[in-house]
Amino acid sequence: MKKGIWLVSTGLLLSCSSLAQAKQDICVFDLLGKAGESYKMMEEWALAAKVWNADVRLIAYQNEEKADNDFKNGKCDAIYMTTMRARAYNKFAGSIDALGGVPSNAIAHKAIIYVLDKRNIKRLKTSIDNVQYEVGGIGQIGPAYIFVKDRNINTIEKAAGKKFAVLEYDKAQIAMVKRVGATPVLSDVSDFVSKFNKGQVEMVGAPAYAFKPLEMDKGLGTNGALFNFPVLNVTADLIFNTEKFPSNLGIQSRDWFIKQLPRQFAMVKRLEEGIPAKYRMQLSKEEKEKYQKLLRDGRIELTKQGIYDASMMTVLKKARCTVERTNFECSLGGE
Fold it and tell me: Regarding beta strands 125-128 and 55-61, do their DSSP bridges make them parallel or antiparallel, or are they unpaired?
């Protein structure tokens, strides 16, 4: 009898030990694969995770849809991908990339720190089809600007009828492009810039992260430009299946991501400075306000539709009005 109990106990211990030592696979999306800044950062995260009793293996993807499908099918235990796609797993954190919601790096910094704060731990966990997901971190990629093949498309009205590459899974982008009268051309992160470069679309939104490696100067040619007005802030989320990781990993991981923010914002600054000044086009004050109003109306409508999280919209507005107190929207309700 004693021998039987001993064998069962030993088996349980070995089983627990095996579970603790099991490797966790992380799908990591980066446009540049293993050569990209996001992948390199996740390599450092993987080293830190060893201290948190996680033994992870990174799998690089340059196709975000494939990475997401592999995560859904259980081939990966966690995924690092753009927040726009990660919104499907957590609408609260996923709404930080709302159109026009974060118009500067200063506001982006405040927003990311707030989302990852310990007070929001419940909001960062969701259950979908009996699987519990948790946001383990948010990485800054940078503000996205509108690139045009013809710098004469310098007003909202002139965008009417023009083809604009949009991410097919982001209903917000599609809605906003239609709102200005442009024609949305459904694309993926893997090919939206190539469509611009090949002349298949006349407009596209992208961060500085994509400019040099994806050779956007080819799409701009001699008459193209980028509006020096960010339409959204691009971030990436680490989403993991909580059953596959130590219980305290979420808190430790989010603290780690917060500590990386100064370096990430420095990276964004470096990449933006790498875009030649000849491509930058300043919008008039009147035109900027038109865009702000358009984006604001769009956010309110998209929040009503359930695409954006209402509480996050309130947080982002407070952040904007803390930094830019004289902005017209600060005296308005609705967000």
Answer: unpaired
Domains 23-140+235-273 and 144-232+281-308 share a fold: yes
pLDDT one-digit tens code per residue, 169-213 = 888 889 889 988 899 999 988 889 999 999 999 999 999 999 998
Measured distance CA(193)–CA(198) in Å, rounded: 9
Q: Which is nearest to 231 in space by CA: 275, 277, 290, 286? A: 290
The token pair at 4 is: 């039987």
As a whole number of angstroms, the distance between CA 271 and CA 43 comes to: 21
Distance from C-alpha of 184 to C-alpha of 191, rounded to nearest angstrom: 14
131-148 and 232-241 as β-strands: parallel, antiparallel, unpaired? antiparallel
d(CA 272, CA 130): 42
Q: Name beta bridge partners: 227.
A: 281
C-alpha to C-alpha distance for 208 and 142, rounded to whole angstroms? 7
What residue ranges in the chain does DSSP mark as E strands? 23-29, 55-61, 78-82, 125-128, 131-148, 163-167, 183-187, 203-207, 225-227, 232-241, 280-281
Q: What is the pLDDT of residues 265-316, one digit of tens each?
A: 999 999 999 999 999 999 888 888 888 999 999 999 999 999 999 999 999 9
Domain boundaries, the chain: 23-140+235-273, 144-232+281-308
- As given in the structure block, the two tokens for residue 2 are 């004693």
Q: What is the DSSP code (8-state) at residue 321?
A: H
3-class secondary-structure state, position 92: helix
144-232+281-308 classified as CATH 3.40.190.10: yes
Q: What is the DSSP letter of 209?
A: H
Residues 61 and 48: their CA atoms lie apart, in Å, by: 21
* Choices 3.40.1440, 3.40.190, 1.20.1070, 3.40.50: CATH for 23-140+235-273: 3.40.190
Contacts of residue 80, Cβ cutoff 8 Å, sequence gap at least 6: 26, 27, 28, 29, 38, 42, 139, 236, 237, 238, 239
